[in-house]
Structures are given as structure tokens and as C-alpha cells.
Design goal:
With 110 residues, the protein is of the alpha+beta class. The chain has 3 helices and 5 strands. It has one domain. A 5-stranded antiparallel β-sheet has the order 1-2-3-4-5.
């Protein structure tokens, strides 16, 4: 999902219940990413839910909180990936993907 978002081929929207939660969908899954404390800062939460069309429901299949008690050998790498995904999702949802290049252009920096 990170690669698709970085390539701007996966768009994110703000989740209706929060100004700091973002969602995107594939054919079978819905991805949510947010800051745990709704303050835009770590820790971040990534949740993935499976669509159950016959019941018009979502079933949560994964929940990952950065910096949490999960002990995995590559936790630091996973945390960085979720943090980057949060930043890109937020930029996508607010339409800010080109902000840096626009700012540099207006300042005359190539």
C-alpha cells in the first residue's frame, strides 16, 4: 500500500468520523491509518478490514500500533513504514501532495 500511495496510484480520503483518520480501499479491503491520540503525531495506528459484501460489513483483520508492545524482529522498519503511510495518506486526503514542489517553484528554487 505504501508503494501505491507513493506512486499516487492509490488515493486516500478523510474518514468521516475524524479529521485525523484516513482511509482507502481496494476491491476486498479497506485500510485506515491515524494517529492514536488524534493529534497528528506518533504513535500511529494502521488497521485493515476485509469487506464482506453479502453482509455489508467490514471485518477487521489487522491492527498495528507503532511503538507498541509488539515484539517482531523488524518492528522499527514496520513503524517507519506506517509513519510514512500516515504522512502520505494525510497529504493525499487534503490534496497536499504537490505542496513542496509548489512552494519551491514559487520561491524560484529548482
Amino acid at each position: 500500500m505504501l508503494e501505491l500511495t507513493e506512486a499516487k496510484s492509490q488515493r486516500w480520503t478523510r474518514f468521516e468520523a475524524s479529521d485525523d483518520e484516513y482511509q482507502t480501499e481496494t476491491e476486498s479491503f479497506v485500510f485506515f491509518v491515524r494517529s492514536r491520540d488524534d493529534d497528528g503525531n506518533a504513535p500511529y495506528v494502521l488497521e485493515i478490514a476485509r469487506k464482506i459484501p453479502s453482509h455489508e460489513r467490514l471485518i477487521k483483520v489487522l491492527r498495528y500500533v507503532t511503538g507498541g508492545p509488539t515484539i517482531v524482529w523488524d518492528q522499527f522498519e514496520i513503524d517507519e513504514t506506517v509513519e510514512r503511510l500516515y504522512e502520505l495518506a494525510k497529504a493525499s486526503a487534503w490534496g497536499l501532495e504537490e505542496t513542496e514542489s509548489e512552494l519551491l517553484k514559487e520561491l524560484g528554487v529548482d
